[in-house]
Amino acid sequence: MKNSYMKRHGLNRRQFIRTSAALAGTALLSPWTLSGVRAAAAPAGKRTAVDQVTLGKTGIKLSRLGFGTGSDNGHAQTALGRDGFTKLIHYAYDQGITYIDTAQAYATFDWIGDAIKGLPREKLFIQSKVPGKPDDVLATIDRHRKTFNTDYIDSLLVHCMTRDAWTDEWKRVMDAFNEAKEKKWIRAKGVSCHTLPALRAATASDWTEVHLVRVNPQGNHTDGMKADWSGELHNDITPVMQEIKTTHAKGRGVIGMKIIGNGSFTDPADREKSIRFAMACKEIDAVVIGFTSTQQIDEAIERMNRALAVV
Question: I need a labelling partner for 284 at 20 to 30 A (CA). Which of 88, 101, 135, 254 fits?
Fold first, then answer.
């Protein structure tokens, strides 16, 4: 029956899987319910969540929607077990998500290599992050390559900067990233920031090629003047959006994170508002969302597709 359907509609295996998943996505589970919206393939010519987009002026391609593996520092994903995590990564890939976001500090870090096994490496965009100031930065970067069983990392970031002087304090690390890029161990380099002063320093620095920026219109877990890990603080998003516009104008790649408010947007209306906000911002190349179920993946794709259809 499946083969006859594929022949009748001219579908290959991946297209069949994607179509089937879209139909299955009509039955979504709480708290990620679409409130009656039916999942469907986007019309031809429309922008979608799984389009291959270019990351700034790096020339690197990635899916507009990325799979975040660091929810609760990755513990939400490791709770799935290795097999469950791997199956979810492959499910995401079958829907068209080629961007996988990880970090050395995530509990999922050591699982990525096995999770991407069997997927075409040249079609994947893997972004990882280096914490702190390792004694041997190149050895640390090499560890990322070996852990992922790959020759290169597509985008490697200095992880979680909060100080306005980080570009001076992390110069040794940044120089090692430059060397790793010359060795073709990494394709692009950048930073994830967790305060507005750090973000401004990243924008001002000519070193930065990729910015991972906390974005949602509610200001939940977005950058303020001071680091805040409580999740209670709601910041004015205007200064962050100004930095995004400035850095985009410089040709840097911009990826939005915390789109679901670090997982706190349990109200579907909040998720809808945030995704529409991010999709309306032409300066954001891609976004990353942490997933722990196929239902969450289906919903994010559907919401992004509908948002992109009207912007």
Answer: 88
